[in-house]
Amino acid sequence: MKIIVCIKQVPERDARLRIASDGKSIDETGLATEINESDQYALEAALRLVEEHGGEVVVACLGPDAAQESIRRALAMGADRAIHLSEDAFQDGDAAATARALAAAIETEEEVDLVMAGLQSDDAGWAQTGVLVAERLGWPSATLIMEIEAEEGGLKVKRELESGWFQWVRLPLPAVLTIQSGINTVRYATLKGIMGAKKKEIKTLSPDHLGLDAGDVGEAGRRIEIARLYEPEKTAEAEMIEGDDAVKAADVLVDRLQKEARVL
Amino acid sequence: MAGAIWAVTESGGDGLKPVSHEVIFAAQVIGDALDMPVEAVVTSAGDGDAAEQAAAREVGCVRLIEDGKLAPYTPDAYTAALRRAIEAEEPGLVLFPHTYQVRDYAPRLAAALDTGFVSDVVGHRVEDGDLVLVRQPYQGKLNADCVFTGEGPNLASLQAGAYLGDEAARGESPAEIVEVDVDLSDVEVRTEVLDTFQEVEDTVDLSRSDVIVAVGRGIGDEENLEIVRELADALGGQLAASRPVCDNEWLPMDRQIGSSGQTVAPRLYVAVGISGAIQHIVGMKGSQTVVAINKDPDAPIFAVSDYGVVGDLFEIVPELTRRVKEVKG
What we know:
The complex is a heterodimer of chains A (264) and B (329). Chain A has helices at residues 37-53, 68-77, 95-107, 129-137, 191-197, 246-259, and strands at 2-7, 9-11, 33-35, 56-62, 81-85, 114-118, 141-151, 154-160, 165-172, 175-179, 202-204, 224-230, 239-242. With 264 residues, chain A is an alpha/beta fold. Chain A has a 9-stranded mixed β-sheet with strand order 9-8-7-10-6-1-4-5-11, sandwiched between helices. A two-stranded antiparallel ribbon of chain A has the order 2-3. In chain A, helix 2 (68-77) packs across helix 5 (191-197) and helix 3 (95-107) packs across helix 4. The longest helix of chain A is centred in the first third of the chain and has 17 residues, at 37-53. Chain A is globular and about 70 Å long. A 9-stranded mixed β-sheet of chain B has the order 9-8-7-10-6-1-4-5-11, sandwiched between helices. In chain B, strands 14-13-15-16-17 form a 5-stranded parallel β-sheet. In chain B, strands 2-3 form a two-stranded antiparallel ribbon. The radius of gyration of chain B is 22 Å and the shape is elongated. The N and C termini of chain B lie far apart (64 Å). The chains are: A alpha/beta (264), B alpha/beta (329). At the A-B interface, helix 3, helix 4, strand 7, strand 9 and strand 12 of A face helix 3, helix 4, strand 7, strand 9 and strand 12 of B. Strand 13 of chain A pairs parallel with strand 17 (307-310) of chain B, so a sheet runs across the interface.
């Protein structure tokens, strides 16, 4: 089975975010990053499928040169090789522009059985890219996947629905799946894996290679403009209690809950 | 944008789901501001009185899309049905609820129409006659103002609870129900639904709890849960969790609060080590009094809290338990 896993490099979960001087993006200087969480689960699921059934795992990543860090990590975890859409023309797209480029990159690969991606990114959070890629490729898709069983010519997958409901769905290959966090336990890269990753191929492709105009991808290919990025106004005015002195903080909080909120 | 605003509804066995009224209300407000007519869209027949319920709202008409291939739900059939209806009627703006079902097919629809789709919207403004949609990227830590670059039909999905469904205006008389012919007989449905089921039959109904102490990723390890359990016991409340804790199987899935778990509105909600991603907040924002304990002063959970303690939960929670026990005698 040949699987392409789409990964995105995102700011680390607890990273302090600073808005860049353009007022529309994040200042990435010195920002700690990681592979988007649900993409890590997608990669782990792909590695397990290939370990069981044979084949190859290729990582596809659209992101700046700095995203090589995440690509190397994916290779260290066990992916066989990578495609990196690092050219400036690809960057700063919306989900539509990003998916257009990823789908075209996937089409340069022969005999792909399955494309997997996390269900949404922890930064932009559109929750669209995987499904957009499926439509661009003309392949069936299933989202929020919690379990995958390979069958003859297809897959049986368990989807998560809302409020504790689930659904088993069967679909033919090639197909696209978006993976829900928590589907498996993500492995750590071993030292051997990290050493081995240095020798693995990372192929970079330009819009030309993909048969796309510069106007189709990146900022130029957007269907949505981000006019402004800003700190939300605090809706509820929380009373903030200093927690350095735990005893005092507990006293103050319990006092408020008793006398002000009257919930104790 | 020219044309109507469509409010695409979702229904279950009892008719329209509550989020459908939220979408209708949002369409009414935006339609008023942009002087665009509002139409409700009801898909898939047999779901109670969904079409009649939508028609009771103040809408220009209800567009009913019926076809045997729409039940059970599949992304192929829904994408084709909505695409055909949109191409035939040419609405300017199509609003959806940001449900799991919409997330499953609306991006396909956006790609098929090659149009913009602003997902998970929490609010809007109209500036110089243009619609600005607000969403919350970076796990809800920041706001982003989004505008469409094209004339439409443009798509947007609305976060549950962002608009008040109860405020959707009712019409003086029922709106006309117009059938949209999409004839899906030539559409190949590639996914086959095998079984739809509820995993845990005997779930803890957290929605009935008066006090809930919820624990998140900040707890670090399963063995640390005990201090939070002790706080819940001292308060006479239920222990609950955000998604990562249940993903790690430190607590069962039926204790999960949020969009993929339960929605609760207790008298007192204590969030311990929960940063407050949108997916969690939608499940607890109706709580009467919210206390958050977190080491990150910028954690979004504080924005929906009444009392916030910034500090080390491993020091604060045991002290809080001790103090609660003292005052409760």
